[in-house]
């Protein structure tokens, strides 16, 4: 069964920015793209487990704050060394100004 | 393609070559008998982790195989014949090269005193294990040199309850690395962890369990560590007659004085186009990686300048320090205060151009702004003091508008 989890208000994240979200012992990164959409990925970089919420968002790319690994946060694809493993992404929807994400089982 | 050196630069070069579509042979000549591994953990996690550490592999056996690399482990290059483009190896065999990348790294400086050979230095995984086992005895540790390696090791030694003294000959720690206020912040953190930092003194005598300083004090030193910098490994290049200038001398394309040989990482110096072609040599993880990428691209026929802004980090306790650009070129500073006591010092030259940024804070608090400042440094930007000092001012806006000089 899908279960939508409340994350925050859409106004809590600036456009072209990222925020940390913790839920059920897991940590995520929630993104607000320059074109006004919202996305969610695992919080930790697939390279050395550094939290991506401290990283820089430029257009549709999130950059790891330590080793500069880059991912497209819309589909989690790794954009070259040092990261070679894609980031897991999660479905996101917006309802009545609230961001919700589906974490799954 | 032949690469000498199995560190970060060598490993990155391999991935780069295949990434750029090189389908011919790649030979990696690696003096160590290990797969290429990452060095940043050696002063930190490899020493403090509870479990006996394993090298953090950069390229494991599977990757080496899939990248089709001829990995010659535990083998050194001892001679380069540039005429015949042949390298003689320590095992007596010879390897031909079409293009050669030297990524030989740097070697820790030794203490030029009698008994100095008992001082441990840190460069490779075996060194880290040695230091780990020494610290685990919980004995007294004297660290000569208040630079990044010395201080990271000091922080790691406190985890084992060692009595730690850092001996720095300059008026303060990190004299060349960071501005006064950041060094002060780091020193205070060490003091609260029980580390004694002595400045403006040096060691004049090494005893079996202590050292004697210039001011006649005797300091407990059952374990002695030398963190007094590293010298580029240039012997091979020098013997081959390549130009040397504080490292293997490269041009802006990371090419040495031989048109078939390139260099990358700690072993080489290069003129930096963003800083008036000032010649520099950088010892940093990201630099080794970035230079390897430029070098292999040019080895495959491109003609690209290396223009990455220098960037460096150091982790000590819960603090992370990051430096972008060349703070030493700055004449004035602007402080940018961030959350949780973190702050960044922005360094401006006489024309108001941003030339460096040094920051310190817990975790990765400073990372994003340092990254943005790094991008501004690369654009030769002149942000105003008002913009820099206001933490609420979005630096990202400056990057998107063209404010290049």
Could you walk me through the main structural features you see in this protein, from its secondary elements to its overall organization?
The complex is a heterodimer of chains A (105) and B (405). Chain A has a single domain, classed as Rieske [2Fe-2S] iron-sulphur domain (Rieske Iron-sulfur Protein, 3-layer Sandwich), CATH 2.102.10.10. Helices cover 0% and strands 45% of the residues of chain A. Chain A contains no helices and eleven strands. Chain A is globular and about 40 Å long. The termini of chain A are close together. In chain B, helix 1 packs parallel to helix 8. The mean pLDDT of chain B is 96. With 405 residues, chain B is α/β, with parallel strands linked by helices. Chains A and B meet through loops of A and helix 1, helix 8 and helix 9 of B.
Describe the structure concisely for a colleague.
Helices cover 0% and strands 45% of the residues of chain A.
């Amino acid at each position: 069964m899908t279960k939508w989890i409340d994350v925050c208000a859409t106004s809590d994240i600036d456009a072209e920015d990222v925020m940390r979200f913790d839920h059920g012992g897991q940590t995520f990164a929630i993104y607000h793209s320059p074109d006004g959409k919202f996305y969610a990925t695992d919080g930790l970089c697939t390279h050395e487990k550094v939290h991506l919420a401290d990283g820089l968002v430029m257009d549709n790319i999130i950059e790891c704050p330590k080793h500069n690994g880059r991912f497209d946060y819309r589909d989690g694809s790794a954009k070259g060394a040092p990261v070679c493993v894609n980031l897991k992404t999660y479905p996101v929807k917006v309802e009545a100004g609230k961001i919700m994400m589906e974490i799954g089982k | 393609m032949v690469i000498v050196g199995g560190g970060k630069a060598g490993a990155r070069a391999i991935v780069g070559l295949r990434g750029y579509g090189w389908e011919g042979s790649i030979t990696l000549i690696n003096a160590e008998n290990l797969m290429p591994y990452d060095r940043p953990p050696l002063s930190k996690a490899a020493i403090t982790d509870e479990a006996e550490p394993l090298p953090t592999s950069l390229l494991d056996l599977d990757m080496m195989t899939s990248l089709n690399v001829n990995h010659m482990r535990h083998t050194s290059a001892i001679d380069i014949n540039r005429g015949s483009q042949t390298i003689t190896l320590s095992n007596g065999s010879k390897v031909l090269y079409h293009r050669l990348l030297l990524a030989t790294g740097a070697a820790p400086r030794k203490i030029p005193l009698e008994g100095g050979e008992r001082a441990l230095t840190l460069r490779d995984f075996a060194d880290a294990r040695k230091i780990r086992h020494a610290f685990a005895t919980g004995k007294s540790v004297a660290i000569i040199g208040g630079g990044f390696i010395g201080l990271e090791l000091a922080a790691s030694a406190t985890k084992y309850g060692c009595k730690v003294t850092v001996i720095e000959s300059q008026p303060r720690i990190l004299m060349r690395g960071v501005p006064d206020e950041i060094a002060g912040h780091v020193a205070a953190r060490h003091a609260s962890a029980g580390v004694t930092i002595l400045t403006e003194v040096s060691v004049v005598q090494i005893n079996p369990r202590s050292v004697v300083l210039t001011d006649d004090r005797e300091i407990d030193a059952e374990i002695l560590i030398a963190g007094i910098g590293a010298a580029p490994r240039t012997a091979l290049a020098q013997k081959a007659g390549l130009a040397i200038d504080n490292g293997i001398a490269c041009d802006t394309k990371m090419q040495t004085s031989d048109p078939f040989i390139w260099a990358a990482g700690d072993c080489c110096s290069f003129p930096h186009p963003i800083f008036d072609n000032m010649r520099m040599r950088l010892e940093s993880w990201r630099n080794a990686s970035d230079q390897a990428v430029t070098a292999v691209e040019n080895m495959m026929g491109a003609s690209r300048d290396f223009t990455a802004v220098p960037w460096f980090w150091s982790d000590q306790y819960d603090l992370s320090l990051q430096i972008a650009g060349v703070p030493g070129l700055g004449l004035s500073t602007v402080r940018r205060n961030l959350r949780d006591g973190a702050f960044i010092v922005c360094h401006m030259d006489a024309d108001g151009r941003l030339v460096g940024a040094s920051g310190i804070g817990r975790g990765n608090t400073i990372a994003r702004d340092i990254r943005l400042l790094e991008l501004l440094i690369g654009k030769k930007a002149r942000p105003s003091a008002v913009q820099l000092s206001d933490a609420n001012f979005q630096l990202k806006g400056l990057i998107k508008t063209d404010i290049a000089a």
